[in-house]
């Protein structure tokens, strides 16, 4: 999968674990409209001719390039490209390496983080941070939250950096969960588990002002839980404990607004799925002859809204204009959040996969000649083609106005302007 231009994932978590998979401003609903308004004028006249072979879309031409190492950590956050590498050893230490003062050509205790403007590729700033296995970043207003991760992808720290200057504003020794357009996040300790890093949290949970890093309130969970930030007015913190107890807090004040108990389920950041007005849980169905069910609850008192058999148990849901949806090679499943109505729209049988950072609005697929087709309207059965990337393009990430992809040799990031 490392050779693909993005990850084979259709889950839009809605909680940014220091990753770049969600833009931070504006709000999620406004952002979806923003993607459409920017792309509609350009894509309306383009027609996908692909029965799997070719496309009438024009090729993307790179507007700039940034050199990178094969093992560099790369993130895109809004109008900023970030590249992290082991920090070079200062010249005074390098000259004394033979005497044992320095043991190589990089400082084992630091990484160098470089910020580049998009789409120009001009370097804005660089700074040094404590070493980690990898770094990723997410945009929050005028800040970039840089997440440090260990060898199993568990987040071990968060550093807030001024996006314009590279100045460090604050840092914490934990993960920070955010959603687009909300200035308060949840600082949590991720739990190592067989499900993977970031699946559950434990211990103390702090609500923090993202501009300053200041703690607004805190609580503790007795064992483990799944934590969510929900962008509504007022913004909410939703905690789903492993017992099924679900608490809804005012994100700013910590006041308890609702409490309830959910049925046994495989609780994870994508289950239950949080939306503006409620949550949808996938769980075992106790009714005869049924394996699993989808049940919706409101966020006012965690009260039951509706429940229906789960027809799409092998796919993961994403946000689609106020509904939930999931793309499969055969088409799109959609779920009406008002009444649980479920529908399937047939596609052309070829898999479209989401481009990271695009909130599912940009998708790609690999063509037989190794070029990469890119399209908009990622939550529809027939995405609108934008163009094709050169053969060998991989690890693509979308920002506000640019698409950044690693080239075939792994040593260069190509920057492509989006319409």
Automatic annotation (TrEMBL):
Species per Swiss-Prot/TrEMBL record: Asanoa iriomotensis
SUPFAM superfamilies cross-referenced by the UniProt entry: Quinoprotein alcohol dehydrogenase-like
Name the record gives this protein: Pyrrolo-quinoline quinone repeat domain-containing protein
Entry-linked Pfam families: PQQ_2 (PF13360)
Signal peptide: none
Lineage: Bacteria, Bacillati, Actinomycetota, Actinomycetes, Micromonosporales
Residue intervals of the Pyrrolo-quinoline quinone repeat domain: 116-226
């Amino acid at each position: 999968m490392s050779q693909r231009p993005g990850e084979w994932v259709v889950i839009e978590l809605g909680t940014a674990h220091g990753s770049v998979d969600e833009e931070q401003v504006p709000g999620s609903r406004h952002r979806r409209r923003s993607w459409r308004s920017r792309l509609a004028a350009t894509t309306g006249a383009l027609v996908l001719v692909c029965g799997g072979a070719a496309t009438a879309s024009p090729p993307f031409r790179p507007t700039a390039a940034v050199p990178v190492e094969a093992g560099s950590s790369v993130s895109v956050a809004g109008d900023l490209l970030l590249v992290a590498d082991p920090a070079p050893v200062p010249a005074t230490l390098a000259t004394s390496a033979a005497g044992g003062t320095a043991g190589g050509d990089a400082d084992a205790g630091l990484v160098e983080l470089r910020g580049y403007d998009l789409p120009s590729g001009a370097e804005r700033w660089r700074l040094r941070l404590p070493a980690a296995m990898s770094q990723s970043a997410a945009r929050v207003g005028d800040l970039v939250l840089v997440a440090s991760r260990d060898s199993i992808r568990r987040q071990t720290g968060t550093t807030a950096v001024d996006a314009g200057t590279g100045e460090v504003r604050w840092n914490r020794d934990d993960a920070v969960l955010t959603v687009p357009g909300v200035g308060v996040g949840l600082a949590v300790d991720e739990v190592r588990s067989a499900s993977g890093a970031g699946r559950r949290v434990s211990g103390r949970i702090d609500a923090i002002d993202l501009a300053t890093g200041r703690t607004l309130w805190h609580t503790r969970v007795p064992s483990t839980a799944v934590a969510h930030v929900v962008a509504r007015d007022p913004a909410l913190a939703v905690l789903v404990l492993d017992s099924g107890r679900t608490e809804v807090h005012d994100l700013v004040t910590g006041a308890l607004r609702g409490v309830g108990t959910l049925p046994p389920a495989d609780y994870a950041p994508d289950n239950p799925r949080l939306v503006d007005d409620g949550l949808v849980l996938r769980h075992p169905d106790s009714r005869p002859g049924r394996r699993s069910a989808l049940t919706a609850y409101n966020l006012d008192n965690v009260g039951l809204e509706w429940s229906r058999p789960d027809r799409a148990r092998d796919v993961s849901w994403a946000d689609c204009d106020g509904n939930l949806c999931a793309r499969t090679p055969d088409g799109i499943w959609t779920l009406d959040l008002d009444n649980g109505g479920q529908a399937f729209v047939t596609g052309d049988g070829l898999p479209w996969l989401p481009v990271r950072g695009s909130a599912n609005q940009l998708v790609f697929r690999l063509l037989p000649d190794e070029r990469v087709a890119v399209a908009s309207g990622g939550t529809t059965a027939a995405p609108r083609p934008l163009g094709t990337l050169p053969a060998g393009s991989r690890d693509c990430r979308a920002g506000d106005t640019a698409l950044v992809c690693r080239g075939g040799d792994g040593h260069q990031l190509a920057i492509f302007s989006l319409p």
